[in-house]
Amino acid sequence: MTQTVQQDDANQVNPDAHKAEAQALSVVGVDPELGFGGGETQVLGLTLALVAGGQRAELICDPAGRLWEQAAATGIKCHPIRIRNAIDLAAGVKLRAILKRERYEVVHFHTSRAHSMAPFARGFGSTLVVTRRMDYRPNRVFAPYLYNRAVDGVVAISGGVADSLAAAGVDRQRITVVNSGVDCEHFRPPTIQERADARDALGISDGELLISAVGALEQRKGHRYLIEAIGALVRKENLVKVRCLIAGQGAIGPLLQNEVALLRRADRIKLIGRIDDPRELLWASDIFTMPSLKEGLGVAALEAMASALPVITSDVGGLREVVVPERTGIIVPPANTDAIASAIKRLAESAELRAQMGAAARARAVENYSMEQMAARTLALYRECVRKTRDERGAVA
C-alpha cells in the first residue's frame, strides 16, 4: 500500500519520529531545468525550509536556468550541471564528481531528466530519492528499474501520481505521497488597499469581476476551454463585466491568442505572459480557474486557495484531491466548456458564495498544504530512507 504523508493519515511518516536521529542531514536537490514552474517553486521552497531547519541543503542545477538565479539570490549554494537528455554520459560523470567531492547523505532528483542520472550516483554512500510530479503513466519499460532499483525512495505529490506510478510497475511499498506545499504567509488574503492597488495595476475597475489562470501555455493545461467559456458567457449571458487574465508562456501561446481573436473578445480575455510572482494577480482576482486535462497536484491552485480565492478546477489528477467540491471550489469535467461557463456564472452571481468558498479554501491550504509541512514530511522521509539504507548496508557488510 502506498505510504501517504498527510495530516489526516494515521500511517503517515511522522515528522517527529526518529528524534534520536535529529542531527543535521546533508542534502542536495538535482533539478537541471531552465524554466521556473511549479516544480521549481517546490524545489526552492523545500531547500530554503531545510536550510532554515538547520540542514545542509544545496542544489545541483543549470547555471543558465532560473532556479540557479533565484536560489543563488537567496544564498543557497549551487553546483553547475547541464543535462541534455536521459543518456547524457558527460552529465553523469560530472554529477558523480560533485557527489564524490561533497559527500551528501541524501540526493533528491526532482525531474525526469535528473532522475535519469540516478544510476551514476549509485555507490557513493548516498541515499537516493526521486519526486514524481506528473499524473500520466511513465514509460513501463524504464520505470520499474528507475523507480524500484535506481533509487531508495519515491515521492509522489498526490495519490493520482502514486496511482500512475503503480500502473507502470512501480512497487507501491516504495511510494510515499508528500503533497506539494505553498508559502501561506506570502500567498495570503490581501488587505483592502492591497487589493485595490493590484486591480489598479492591471486596469481592473471596481465593477468588473476578474477571473484568472496561471500555468504553462500547453495543451494539457486546457486554457482553450476557459477561453471558449468566457466567450460564451459574454455572448449568451451578457456578463459584460467579466474579465479574464491568463498568465504563462508556452508552445501554444500563439494558438490561444488566435482563439481569442476569433472570438473577438480581446477586450474581455487577455494573455499576459509569464509573471515571476502571481501574488498580485491573485489579489486582484475574484475567481481562479485551472481547467487542466492532466495535473499532478496543481501548485497554482494551492497558491490561489491560500490567497482565499474560490477555485474552479478539472476533475483530474491531484486537483480532485486538493479541492473539496462545493466547499472550497467547484470541480468540473475536463475539456467541458459548458461546465466551466456554468461554474463561472454561478460564482459570478454570488459574492457571498465566493467569500464562503474563498475562506474555506484558505483554511484548507493552511491546514494541509503549507510549505513547512511539505518540508517536514520530506525530511522525515529522508531520515527514514537513510536509516533503512544504513541498515541494509550494515546487513550486507
List keywords for this structure.
43% helix; Rossmann fold; 16 helices; alpha/beta; elongated; 14 strands; 6-stranded parallel beta sheet
Descriptive account of the structure:
The chain contains 16 helices and 14 strands. Strand 9 (209-214), helix 9 and strand 10 (242-247) form a beta-alpha-beta unit. It has helices at residues 38-52, 66-73, 89-102, 112-115, 118-121, 143-148, 159-167, 192-202, 223-237, 253-263, 279-284, 299-306, 319-322, 337-348, 351-368, 371-396, and strands spanning 3-5, 26-31, 56-61, 78-80, 106-109, 127-132, 153-156, 175-178, 209-214, 242-247, 269-273, 287-290, 311-314, 329-332. The protein has 2 domains: 3-181 and 370-396, Rossmann fold, CATH 3.40.50; 192-368, Glycogen Phosphorylase B (Rossmann fold, 3-Layer(aba) Sandwich). It is elongated. Helix 1 crosses helix 16 (371-396), helix 9 (223-237) packs parallel to helix 10 (253-263) and helix 9 packs across helix 14. The longest helix has 26 residues, at 371-396. Mean pLDDT is 91; it is low at 4-20. The chain has an 8-stranded parallel sheet. By secondary structure, the chain is an alpha/beta fold.
General shape:
elongated
Beta-strand content? 15-25%
The largest sheet is: 8 strands, parallel
Strand order, sheet with most strands: 1-8-7-6-5-2-3-4
Question: Poorly predicted ranges (pLDDT <50, ≥5 residues)?
Answer: 4-20
Identify the CATH homologous superfamily of the largest domain: Glycogen Phosphorylase B
Distance between the termini: 30 Å
Return the CATH class of the largest domain.
Answer: Alpha Beta
Total beta strands: 14
- Please count the helical segments: 16
Q: Can you tell me the number of structural domains?
A: 2
The level of helicity is 40-55%
CATH topology of the largest domain: Rossmann fold
